[in-house]
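Reviewers asked in the last cycle whether our approach scales beyond single polypeptides. To address this, we selected a multi-component target totalling 482 residues and predicted its structure end to end. The input consisted of the following lines:
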Amino acid sequence: MRVEIWSDIACPWCYVGKARFEKALQTFPHRDAVEVVHRSFELDPNRAKDDIQPVIPMLTKKYGMSKAQAQAGEENLGTQAAAEGLDYRTRDRDHGSTFDMHRLLHLAKERGRQDELIQNLYKANFAEERSVFGDDERLVELAVDAGLDEDEARKVLADPAAYADEVRADEREAAELGANGVPFFVLDRKYGVSGAQPAEVFAQALEQAWASHSPLKLIQADSQGDAEACGPDGCAVPHQH
Amino acid sequence: MRVEIWSDIACPWCYVGKARFEKALQTFPHRDAVEVVHRSFELDPNRAKDDIQPVIPMLTKKYGMSKAQAQAGEENLGTQAAAEGLDYRTRDRDHGSTFDMHRLLHLAKERGRQDELIQNLYKANFAEERSVFGDDERLVELAVDAGLDEDEARKVLADPAAYADEVRADEREAAELGANGVPFFVLDRKYGVSGAQPAEVFAQALEQAWASHSPLKLIQADSQGDAEACGPDGCAVPHQH
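The resulting structure, written as structure tokens, was:
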């Protein structure tokens, strides 16, 4: 079974939602048969790499919130994060482009280190003092800590085209699947969970997707005898088709 | 819609079956929405890299065929290949390990050149005079011709661990899906086609998979109001959960 999670590093509900999903996954009896894939989604795809600002002024400017509203939202997120055992800085967090982080996550996907890296990025962005934006060396550190090769990570960060198509493809796919916000969870391309729902909802989604996991329906010609195929005993040699 | 094709370069029915599938795909009205992924399957996974032999003696030794039977099989394959417009050498073809080719195909997958490379490999193996086995330089040529970077291809071939896990994972998955021979086609993980079936069977499978392509079923908490998610208008801040 495959669970795809569309999310953004700059998305607090993605950070919280991932923990809720994982709580459900930990007690799911078939968890060893579940493959988790992280997919890219930028909340702020047009933000320039060097356009970094503190979260509260960004929220007031971009979404027209009052400073008090924005701060209350952060406090609420802090409470929700704490309930999942996550650290969350409710003050002086930065906001910026996450494009390079998504590109790096695609490298990590190929190297089997995606979950390690996204966890490092979330933690760095939401829990730690030092900003994760506009600092390639910081990203390289987090990548190496996640098990990636330093030179390889550096090379990807230095080349803006590296994995750019993969990020865009994920984003197009999100739109096709009807996701206009994140986190967005897709189970076997059959069930969707939108938002940081409670762990019980994820548990239910896992159960439902598992129950409807059906064997392949084989399609073949009515007249077909031996399939024209090669296997451990050699290649079939039907004389008539 | 995603079509996964498990196949082996040393599998003549895979070569023929791919052409039959493509004939069906060409006339499928939604062909632009079909993503094709090639997956690894070795018919002879235990063969050493340096163990290369002509096909006919291999068939007689491995499967206990008479030389005449083996040659008749090759002639039949030549006829079937010709019917699909494919060249096929019925004599003096070699057999050997395809593990390195599968590793190279995983690199090509990441670079978006998988179909080009598998086509080159099939053609080189089945239609051309020079053996494709035990000759890394030949594989590099075919990779470059498929649009891969020469150094990158060479590096993968030189490192037996590169993409080895990916090859094994594909093979495990084939077993889990019930494939014990190739070619094996899987449409959206819902429909399967085993063997080089006639183009009409592939056309029917494409139609059936397309028709059953259903939108995601969303799962959410009964009590859930606003999803705790971030979108283009900011992050939802529900006060009550």
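The first helix of chain A runs from residue 12 to 26. We regard this as preliminary and will revisit it once experimental data from Aim 1 are available.
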